[in-house]
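Researcher: Re-running this chain for the archive, since the previous output was lost when a drive failed. Same request as before.
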Amino acid sequence: MNDNNVLLEVKNLRVSFALTEATVQAVDGVTFTIEAGKTLGIVGESGCGKSVTARAILGMVRPPGRITAGEILYHGKSGAPVDLAKLPPNSQEIRSVRWGDIAMIFQEPMTSLSPVHTIGNQMIEAIQLHKAVSKRDAEAISVDMMKRVGLPTPERLLSRYRHELSGGMRQRVMIAMALTCSPRLLIADEPTTALDVTTQAQILDLMRELQAEFQMAIMFITHNLGVIAEMADEVIVMYLGKEVEVADVDTIFHNASHPYTQALLRSIPRHDVVVEQLATIEGTVPDPTAIPSGCAFHPRCQHYQRGVCKVPSLIELSDNHYVRCARALDLKH
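Model: Regenerated structure tokens:
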């Protein structure tokens, strides 16, 4: 890896939620790097810590959650890297990074866009928070970006409210808003889950085009491995707050070695195979207040062996291919 290309380093990140009945370790020692211009895919079922990891980067973890350990090193355009984990969530320092250098789009723009402000007011406010421009210039930037994301008659859309737009249009508005300040990293948290298949394909194509145009990095969070295959360069598979497999996208799809990754792959529909019933993963993600002892995945794992599957560490199977499984070498194919 060329260190000059490193944009973000997350090291041993831990995020805890102090609840009445127990303390939940939502993110438990996660480590990864994002390079400029590349896409990191983070995949896993709901409740595995993907979104909390993303929110921690931007200082957006809501109480009672808080970062309890680790570093989030952002490499700016000049000077030493800044540890975002050490910045107060409402400080000017994190605000200058949030939406400016690192922007985020969410799964459901209906809950992210204000119902009482026009699209134009929201976009212009976001631009003026990070750029010393007039309202007229901010409006021009908004119109130009909405044109780039394929929205029709953007001048008219500025006066519209969120409920007046379709789901696909709202998502395009969110992308346009995120890109108005030319971020170096775009965090996309399940950005296409609520969309129909056709609109989803259009949004993914749009994100790839804009990534190439702006040379930005993307952190793409999803439960859908099919989307990961289309978007990612590197992949992290998460389960109950930990990375269970880390590799480049080709290795994940052609040489997956963790039983959880293998199970996720089996559940992807295939156009060349007709099946009566789609494969599913047995059981559900455990309650985070009652995580199983030993390997957390073992109650759902068809390869579990008592006495062998103890608390696993992350081992390197080959160059840049890491797996958290005591039987990884046995199951490697």
